[in-house]
Amino acid sequence: MPRQRLYFENVDNLLIPYVYVLTFKPGELKWDKPVHYYDAIPPFNYVGIEELDESLNNAVIYFSDFIFHENYSKRFGLNINVIKSRIQSHGVDPYVIHQLILPTDDISKLMSMIPSSERKMDFILI
Q1: What pTM does this model have?
Q2: What 3-state DSSP class applies to 100?
Q3: Which of 28, 96, 100, 119 could form an S-S bond across to 22 if both were Cys, CB 3.0 to 4.6 Å?
Q4: Which contacts qualify for 28-31: CB closer than 8 Å, 24 or more apart?
Q5: pLDDT per residue over 67-111, tens digit each?
């Protein structure tokens, strides 16, 4: 399961989400599969943006890359076919990617898919 982190900035004692990052171990993300499912609740860490590891190869993902199933509300799917095509269109081998980053604009949509009773912390979206 990927390490999940919501990186934030602290502005006037408010947590402002910056990016949601999924970090995978080498070989953990199977690029030859059409979908990758993972548990979207624990462990979910909230970390200051200064701790983001920019040394890892990463790719941007979007809310539209996620797959949700009403019977599995605590599991999110990633449309690997779409993500892989996007990465390859930029001339990058997807097998070197170890982090998938969801930008600020899509965080609120993704967080709305997590039942509020499962969230470890509330945050402010601007």
Answers
A1: 0.81
A2: strand
A3: 100
A4: 28/2, 29/2, 29/80, 29/97, 29/98, 30/80, 31/80, 31/84, 31/94, 31/95
A5: 988 777 778 999 999 999 999 999 999 999 999 999 877 777 787
